[in-house]
Amino acid sequence: MSSAFAHSQYMPCVECGASVAVGDRDSHVCDPDRLLDYTVFQLRGEIAGLEGELWGFLDSSHGRFAQWLAERQRRGS
Question: For residues 74 and 58, is the Cβ–Cβ distance under 8 A?
Answer without folding.
Answer: no
